[in-house]
Amino acid sequence: MTQQPTTLYRHPLSGNSHRVELFLNLLGVEHELVDVDLIAGEQKTPPFLTLNPRGQVPVLIDGDN
Questions:
Q1: What angle do CA 14, 19, 24 make, to 5 degrees?
Q2: What integer is the mean pLDDT of 20-48?
């Protein structure tokens, strides 16, 4: 059984995103980073709103959840 990767949707200048990324690194969790363009309003698009209805970063997807 293969485990789905952990994905962090973030903005590089977000302090909250940085905290999550820091803890993932400290725990040794392999993860993929996806940058969200807040200036362009990417966090308010329907695909992103399915991840977080509040339209905020960070969003952490762990495996299939």
A1: 125
A2: 97
